[in-house]
Structures are given as C-alpha cells and as structure tokens.
Amino acid sequence: MAATSSSTTCDGLFIISLLVIASSLFGTSSAQLNATFYSGTCPNASAIVRSTIQQALQSDPRIGASLIRLHFHDCFVNGCDGSLLLDDTGSIQSEKNAPANANSARGFNVVDDIKTALENACPGIVSCSDILALASEASVSLAGGPSWTVLVGRRDGLTANLSGANSSLPSPFEGLNNITSKFLAVGLNTTDVVVLSGAHTFGRGQCVTFNNRLFNFNGTGSPDPTLNSTLLSSLQQICPQNGSGSAITNLDLTTPDAFDSNYYTNLQSNNGLLQSDQELFSNTGSPTIAIVNSFASNQTLFFEAFAQSMIKMGNISPLTGTSGEIRQDCKAVNGQSSATKAEDIQMQSDGPVSLADM
Predict the structure, then answer these.
(1) Which of 101, 268, 335, 338 would you call most buried, defined as having the most Cβ atoms within 10 angstroms of its Cβ?
(2) 44-203+251-315 is classed in which CATH architecture?
(3) Which residue in 50, 69, 73, 155 is the catalytic one?
(4) Which residues, at least 6 apart from 273, have a Cβ–Cβ distance to it below 8 Å?
C-alpha cells in the first residue's frame, strides 16, 4: 500500500510539473486549446484542410507560403482571432489595407475554399482562426517540412484592428532590434525571430520588398554591402532601378518551393533576399548569428524548433469558450456582408513582407 501511495504521489507531482511547463510555454489560455477539440464534432477537419491545400498547390506552388504568412499576420494583431480575414464594412476597417498586407497578402480565396468544404462537412463548427493554424501546418508538411500537433479551439474575433496592423507587423526594411521588439511585444523571443523567419525558405518576394538594397542602400548611393555580388547582379536585372517594383523572385534561391534549412545556409553566403533576413547573420555581435549557424548545420534542429515556435505563436491571445464567434464566412462577421469581392482578393500578389510569403 505504501508503495502504491508513493507511486501515486510521484505521478501526481510529475503531472503537476508537466502542467507548469505547459503553462510557461503556451500561457494560461492554452488549456482551452487542445489537439482533440474537433474530434467529436468535425473529426476530419485536418484532412479537409490538407486536401484543399493539395488541390490549390497544383496550380499555385507558392500558396503554402502565402497561407502561413496569413497566420503570422493574423496572430501579430489582436492575437490569433482571424481578424486579418475580415473585409471592409461600414463598421470595420480591414487589416488587409495595412502596408504589410495591401497588394501583398494572398491566399484568401483558398481560405474561403477550405471554409466552404468544412461547412459542408460540419456546419458552424470550425473557426476561421483555426483554419489558418491548420493550414500553416499542412502547408509546411506538404512542402517537406516538419509536422506538429496543432492546438485548436480558437474562436473568431468580431472586429479588425487596422491601426494595430500598421504598427505591429514586422517590416522587411526594419532593423533587427525593431523586429525583435515586435516579437517580444507578443510574447515571443529572439530565438523565435530566427526560427519563424525560416518560413522564408519557400515562397516569393516582390521587388518592392528588397529593392532598397540594390542601388542606394540607406542613402549611401551604393548597394547593401551584405548582399552577395552575384545575387545582386541577378536582382538588379529582375528589379531595375526605375521599375514598377511588382516583379517577384524566390525568397530561397536554391530550393524555392521546399521547406528546408537552406534559408540559413543562404544567409551564411549573404544570399538572404530581404534586409530583415540577412541582418540575422550580418548584424555584428548579434546573438542571432549562432542560432543561424546551428540551424544551417542541423536541419532536424530547425524543424523541431520551428514546430515549437509555431505552437507558441498560435497561442497568442486566442479567443476561446464563449468569446467571439464561429464565422460562417471568414470575410465577414456573422450577420454582416463582406464589401470586398472574391475576385479582387484573388488578384492580390506578393508585396511588403514580414515573416513568410510571399
């Protein structure tokens, strides 16, 4: 009997320890997000999301990178509540109009396709904010990257925050200190900056997001000295000095549609496309350099860290319980109509970037 009691006590302490660790990793609201939230109400939710993305990839190889970017940009403003997906209405100013999203954020039509498929299978069950989280995992794993257990149970916000999107989203032109500050503001850290920037291992970027490096960097009259000279020549041809800035090129010049650790080896040879990318390695004395080197030499380590950081980011201030709602249409709060036509959204291309495609 004494042995049984001791074992039970130890088991209880072990469980408490796990709960403390989980709380420190994911915050207090994580207890309301869990991997089995839809097991009884929409058990095929993940499979439906994945199959819809597989179909979209057949005609748009960069859609996976675009979808994960939507999740990033959603979570950094108001938390992971699907607010980015809302269109303009009389009472809502859409976050799609923020500089980091306008003529840039894309994939909304695929989100709508996923929502339609889920509504057909299990009406009124799966939130749009959870769609973004599930789509991010599916997009990464379909591109050869890691898989992870997506915690779900988020509900959708009732409004957008354009001013928050204007101020909170990292910019490709910002220095490392500013970007790190924006991560810290939502509970992420320097390691998360390096890890989540690794999403630039696939997708595309518009000239307007990096042409500041090509001709007159920071008013010097010369290109960015941390830009590889061979890559510089290639980019100057794609993005001429007086061009429109709308041409696109690969974020990862080696394996543009694969999710791997080449992003980090590219940085080591000054082949990062964006200023915000290359600063992770070229900012003298920065603690990010050692992290870049570790991921460049160990893809497994990067994959493990990426999964952990995605779970951590996905738990930024989610709405749970009775907060918010489950939107019937991801573009509009229930009972309101969307002001933006679907065909307008489909025409959006890559533009100002922060964390992912592009």
Answers:
(1) 101
(2) Orthogonal Bundle (1.10)
(3) 73
(4) 200, 205, 209, 210, 235, 249, 250, 251, 252, 253
